[in-house]
Amino acid sequence: MDSWYKFKRVFLSVGVPPTFWLVAFFLVPLALIWVFSFGEKTGVVGIDITWTIDNYIRAFNPDILKIFAKSLWLAIAATVICLFVGLPVALGIVYAPSKWKGLLLLGIMLPFWTNLLIRTYALIAVLRTRGYVNFTLEWFDAKIRVLFDLFGMGGIATALLGERFQALELLYNDNAVILGLVYVHLPFMVLPLYAALERLDRSYLEASLDLGAGHLRTLWNVVVPLALPGIISGIIITFIPALGSFLTPDLLGGPDSAMIATIIERQFKSANDWPFGSALSFLLMYITFGALALRAVMAKRGGSDGLEG
Amino acid sequence: MSNKIRNGLTRRSMLQASIAGAGAAWAGISFGPKAFADEEAKVNFYNWDTYIGETTLGDFENLTGVEANMSLFADNDELFAKLREGNPGFDVIVPSDTYVARMLAADMLEPLDYSLIPNTKNLNPLFTDAAYDPGRKHSVTYMWGTMGLGVRKSATDGITSWKDVFESDKYAGRIAILSESTAMIGMASMYLGTGMNPTSQADIDAAVDLLIKQKPAFKAIAEDNGQDLLASGEVDVTIEWSGDIGQVMLEDDDIDYVIPKEGSLIWADNLCIPKGAPHPMNAHKFINYILDAQAGALIADYIQYATPNQAARALLNDSYNKNPSVFPPDEVLAKCEWQIYQGEEISRMKDEAWTRFLAA
Known about the structure:
Chain A has 309 residues and is an all-alpha fold. Chain A has 14 helices and 2 strands. Classes of the chains: A mainly alpha (309), B alpha/beta (360).
């Protein structure tokens, strides 16, 4: 490694712009919100920084905790589903012919380039009572009835399918929120998994298969441990944004699906309580830091295991 | 020929404008809004989306030579958040009633000079005073309306009371309410008889308890898209703003707008000049132009909200003037109440109560 001291100018020109960016657009605003979280409202727009911890104490109100718990549950459910869907997808891309790989990755990335609001409204059009899923089901329903009627068994069709087609209630509940979160965050899971699996030495897999392990056992005992850093990265970068989502639960969720970001948004807008909103944001941030610290610890442990093994 | 003249004029006025602009920028800092005389020929209008006539801004520019720039906000909170740390350069803004009060409490509005707005004579006398701005020193009404129920006629049987929404399983799973905490607590309180603006913790709790008990009957808490839920058949009853339901009623005969017998909310959006407006003179000119009969009629006809401008209404036909979703009958309006800005303490009580509703 060359010393920065010897190549001062190079290091300065490369290092200063990103440092400036990080400080001006990340650390300073974040610090501002952090300071606000110890503030007190004075009147309509005034905030006095009194270093009170009241805002944090207020956050431990049972209603807020309940919504926090709900957010955790929805984010964890979405992350687990992303993992189970994402792993086969990533494996599929890794083992696809190389000319297809770029195209398949593009397919994963493509929805990213469309605005989240538009994608969410599209999802609403698919899932609502008079949406495409229900239209499709209704079409099949009608065809089956015609088929049964053809054989003079209309009664059986009615017994099986009911008097008339009942549309599925796919929107405005927790399942819709989880589906929305999975849909939005799947790329966050697939990409780190793909990166980890791509680097994997395939001779290990061949050895495992040659030595008599089945495919599932190879997956579980060889692929998963080797890809563990990627899996952990995927889990964390899926979980963190999922925990903070507010558009998805607001638009797809029912009256019981409020997530913590909805409450935070309200503090900065209609409730006009920036100190409390800041405290809630930072509680979310502390959870994020916790998750990142956990990852660092696990990565370290994984690394030392590797050395010993 | 006329084109040539206009071009010449434009170029010259542009030159003037740029000189005046530099002057005004300077004046803005040193003398404050008093330096009316050499104002740049511009006015920055901060408005809601689809809330102005098709040609209003261009017409104003042709008439006065003042260029009107419009930026859009999505809701009052966005407007308030943009201005709370200082005016970024807006001359005319359109806050709703309670936000006029909130902005007055925060000293964010410039008093209006009515000698520069002679067209206020066109306004319905009902709108010459308002509880949210006593004496109307800082605001004139732009448009007004109500909140009520959008209903699908074929799937409901004549809803007349809030009972069907707040205390009955008749339409369970087919109701959407709005994500407007203060208004929803107000509606539930109207039903309970404590009025649109409950002030005590007990009254607020009673309203929220009612909402919590009824929560299983609500299918969604709409983000101001209740009219879409109604139009797409997702729900059959939705609490919404009158104008939003009015728009889907134009496309679907099966949709109706109802104000329950216990009464509902009446609101108004207002033209105001925020403190620190760079072009206060043009702002007055612009407000006066909007209150003009012809200009007001074009706006109201295009956006289909209720105008307080009597002279403009006289120019419009019955399909606008007699539309009950735009202008509810007087006896219905008599039961409607304004939301009142009650200060930060009560706002916080209501916000916490709403969080309790969401968590329940």
